[in-house]
Each structure stands twice: as structure tokens, then as C-alpha cells.
Write a structure and sequence with these properties.
- With 227 residues, the protein is α/β, with parallel strands linked by helices.
- It is 35% helix and 15% strand.
- The chain is globular.
- The structure holds zinc ion (ZN) (2 copies).
- One zinc ion binds next to helix 2.
């Protein structure tokens, strides 16, 4: 049925409006031009490391998460596309990114549940949707990994972090999350759209580990790479 619908109503590319987008919603050229994160990277934080070994920062001060996998590097024009998506335009991008994440990142991973980065209640009211949760729903379906939408909440509204130094970001995130679920010995995937310094994911990872999780992997659409 899906195939028939596609043939009757061919989907246009979300980025360039080409009519040859296929079921992903991205045409071959746009997919090819994406900033794929193919560099050798630190397995723990996904920053380029030259030789796929742990980076200096993870050796010195290991984060609470055990691994990070990222589809893309956070660069223009993908960065602009993800911003549009986050603020409620381009909603079909959730499906595209969920399918890509499941295919490229999920293939070799075993996990017991997926927890999307929670938004604070107020932020959720403003935006009316959680950009990470929408992607997580697709990934969960594709990989048959249960989704835990209510497991964690953001209990502290955090100011926009972009302009703050790293240490200040870490401080701001203390006590930002609560976990209501029992996660004893579970392997947990934390899903977020963009990982910048990793301060939010680190704080969330700490929270789920305190709730019993044995292993925590971060899956993100794009990783900010310092130029
Ligand atoms: Zn295109
Ligand atoms: Zn690292």
C-alpha cells in the first residue's frame, strides 16, 4: 500500500523540491551533499580524534555517557534545516531523520529503551512538540526498541546556553532532570537533535545512571565540531 501511494503521489524532496525524493523525503543529490559525520571520532563524545581513540577531554574528565553516535556534523545548511524543524516548520523531517538514524547508527546497537531529551513543560507549551521525541518515535518503531516518553522530565528551565562558557553550562545543568522510571541494568539510548558541548546529554546520562542504567549511548542527528 505504501508503495502504491508513493507511485500515485510521488514525494518531493524536503530540501530542494525535486520530485525524486523516494520514501526518505530526500533526493539522491541532497542526501549525498549532507555533512555526514564520517571522520574518525572519539567513541565516547563523537568529536573528531584522528584515530578513533578516546579524545583528551574524555580521558581527563569522562562524561556520564558511554558512547555517542552522530549522523552528521552540525554545519550549514543542515544547521539551518534543523533550526527550521525545531521551531515547527518542516515537521516531516522527523521521519527522514528517524529513518536515517535507525539505518546508519542503529544497525549495530543493542538497547533496552530510547529516552528522548525532555523539554521543560513551559518550552513544550511554547513549541507544542518535542523535536527529539518525534525523531525517537520513528527510531523506536524501526528498531523495535521501546520508547520511554515519560521516564525523564526536565525540572529546571535552563537559559539558552549558546553564549555561555563550558563550565557555566555544566553548572546550569545540575539538577536539571529527574527520572521517574526504574532503569536497573538497562542499556539506554538518549536521543537528541543536536549535541553541542554535551552538557545537557551528560546531565541526563547522570540522571538515568542514577536510576540504574548500566550503559548509556547518545544518538544525535548532528554534532557541533569546533572548526
Ligand atoms: Zn533534494
Ligand atoms: Zn571524547
Amino acid at each position: 500500500m505504501a508503495g502504491l501511494i508513493e507511485r500515485l503521489f510521488p514525494q518531493s524532496c524536503l530540501l530542494c523540491s525535486s520530485w525524486r525524493a523516494g520514501s526518505l523525503g530526500l533526493c539522491h543529490d541532497c542526501l549525498h551533499d549532507m555533512p555526514w559525520h564520517t571522520d574518525h571520532a572519539c567513541p565516547q563524545c563523537a568529536l573528531p580524534s584522528g584515530n578513533s581513540m578516546l579524545c583528551g577531554q574524555c580521558l581527563q574528565a569522562p562524561p556520564a555517557f558511554d558512547a555517542t553516535r552522530s549522523l552528521f556534523q552540525y554545519r550549514f545548511p543542515l544547521s539551518a534545516t534543523l533550526q527550521q524543524y525545531k521551531y515547527g516548520q518542516l515537521l516531516p523531517l522527523a521521519r527522514t531523520m528517524g529513518l536515517l538514524l535507525a539505518e546508519h547508527v542503529g544497525r549495530h546497537s543493542a538497547a533496552d529503551c530510547i529516552i528522548p531529551m525532555p523539554l521543560h513543560r513551559k518550552r513544550l507549551q511554547e513549541r507544542s512538540f518535542n523535536q527529539s521525541a518525534e525523531i525517537a518515535k520513528i527510531v523506536s518503531k524501526q528498531l523495535h526498541i521501546p520508547l520511554q516518553l515519560q521516564a525523564c522530565t526536565r525540572i529546571k528551565p535552563t537559559p539558552p546556553q549558546a553564549s555561555l562558557p563550558y563550565k557555566q553550562r555544566i553548572k546550569n545543568m545540575q539538577g536539571a532532570f529527574a527520572c521517574q522510571a526504574e532503569l536497573t541494568d538497562m542499556r539506554v539510548i538518549l536521543l537528541d537533535d543536536v549535541m553541542t558541548t554535551g552538557a545537557s546529554l551528560n546531565a541526563l546520562a547522570k540522571t538515568v545512571k542514577a536510576a540504574g542504567a548500566s550503559r548509556v549511548e547518545c544518538w544525535v542527528i548532528a554534532r557541533t565540531i569546533a572548526e
